[in-house]
Amino acid sequence: MRKIVIYGASSSGKRALGYYGREQVIYFCDGDKNKVGTFFQGIEVISKNKLIEIQNEIDIIIASVYYEEISKDLFELGINEIKRFVCFEETKKRIDCDLKKKLDYRSVFGKKYKLQEKGNQLNLISNEDIIFVILSQFEWIVVKSVYDNCQDLNCAVIVCGDLALLQRLGEEGVTCCSAYDYSLEERRPHAVVYVNDFVQNYSQYSFEYKRAKKYADMIIFIPFDMVIYGKDKIKQLSQRYLRQNADMVFVNLDYYEKFRPYQNNLFLEGNPKFDYIYEKINNRVAIPDHWEVKIKDRPIVLWGNTHGMSEQGISDLYSFDLWFKVIVNYFLEHREYVLIFRPHTYIFDELIMRGIWSYQDCKTFEKMFQSEDNFILDLEKDYGISYNISNALISDASGLLLSYLSTGKPIIYTATARLDYSFSDPKLIEHYYIARNSKELDFCMDEIFKHNDPLNEKRLQTKERYIPKFDGKIGFRIAKAIKKRLKGLNE
Fold it and tell me: Are residues 291 and 430 in the same domain?
């Protein structure tokens, strides 16, 4: 095994040192010039120039919450082989997959490459009309209905890093390939569709927006909902390259009203992820067996939250620490209900990075949570299962406050002092149940399950306002608009 240089002379670097051991770690590296030349944990801190000199002799491990910025900086310096230090097992697997740039995909996905006769391979004769660039299962959920409605065109899904997702899509007959195997310059697709506008996410795959703008006829953006962002952040967000330079930006009403003063490329068609939710709540879903055993015809409450903890501080949106004991204790005392906890992807990672919980703490929490007969930890890739079977939602200031509204079911907003018990979009939560403490949570639960949900009718009016086109056809309308624009370009 090669020796290691840990990038990040900080608390995260200290934990990485404990993980890899002093016999393996020969240097720390850090972007802070004041640290270069000093010793951290008894080990010399070197400069990035020194790192460039020895990069072929060592493994570079980034141990920092600023992983995206650091990796982008190192890539620009010509350092391509890096790994990220994380302890939470699922995230470690995901990030390791993202960074294995030289992986032999054909040996991993041999089955996929035998399916050419089923039509899920790229058409090597003609260039793609549309490519959908995605990083995760969530982003696939967003664009899936648009992709499905573009099957009369030559389309492909380009997967950045998530090998398991690439394999699954290939086996399902989706025309797809790895971002490492696709060249914008050579293929020159007519349109490129993005869901994520954080440019560093695409830097290692050569799918930066400016490159797409250069080699494609047009770029299209289908952004995340902006419901959790206050007015003070909107102007700054609107200046991001993709938001300003995309030819078409398809948005939901909340985004449209906030960004309309700063963008002239908005199309008010809705977010196609609502097609996915529409399908899930209107059809039977496959409930995991170990969930069925616990449910036993009891009412089900879904609990979701956002992330926001770093080494530097805690976001105003973060509430896991404030509500954890309150919510868990409530459902321990009220076993007439089943609690499904669907943690944000980064919740456990952030606890580990801050040193609040260890990796073993996370696994112990998981075991203890699952041991309760009315507790379910939802780590499924398909959040549609929980949306379908739950009877109500408990959430802090997250995007769930909008997406779950589409189900028509009750929502409890767990307000916190960090946000002055408010929310960036007061109109949205006007007819939600709002809890600021354990006593108010008790009251909200009683209103929903013992007093016939008195806010039901007014909440449905909110749904009509915020999701006016909830009919399972948003992707169809977006695809139609894209085809019309493509036709105009070709005439």
Answer: yes
What the block records as the tokens of 434 is: 């709002």
| 394 and 428 housed in the same domain | yes
Query: Whole-prediction pTM value?
Result: 0.73
**Beta-sheet strand order (sheet of 39-40):** 39-40, 43-46, 25-29, 4-7, 59-62, 82-84
Question: Do residues 419 and 435 share a domain?
Answer: yes
Q: Identify whether residues 407 and 478 lie together within a single domain.
A: no
Task: Indicate the number of domains in the chain.
Answer: 3
Q: How far is CA 264 from the centre of its chain?
A: 26
> For residue 64, what is the domain's CATH number?
3.40.50.720
Q: Are 227 and 306 contained in the same domain?
A: no
HSE (side-chain half, CA atoms, 13 Å) at 145? 22
Q: pLDDT by residue (tens digit) across 457-474?
A: 999 999 999 998 899 999
Same domain, 475 and 457: no
Q: Scan for tokens 């290692």, then name that residue.
A: 204
- Rounded to whole angstroms, the Cα distance separating 455 from 448 reads 9
pLDDT in tens, 178-191: 888 888 988 999 99
pLDDT in tens, 318-346: 888 899 999 999 999 999 999 999 998 88
Q: Do 208 and 61 share a structural domain?
A: no
Angle between helices 320-333 and 438-449 (to 10 degrees): 50
pLDDT of residue 463: 95
Q: How many CB atoms lie within 10 A of CB 7?
A: 32
The domain containing residue 10 runs over which residues? 4-85
Q: What are phi and psi of 340, to 5 degrees?
A: -105, 115
Higher pLDDT, 309 or 143: 143
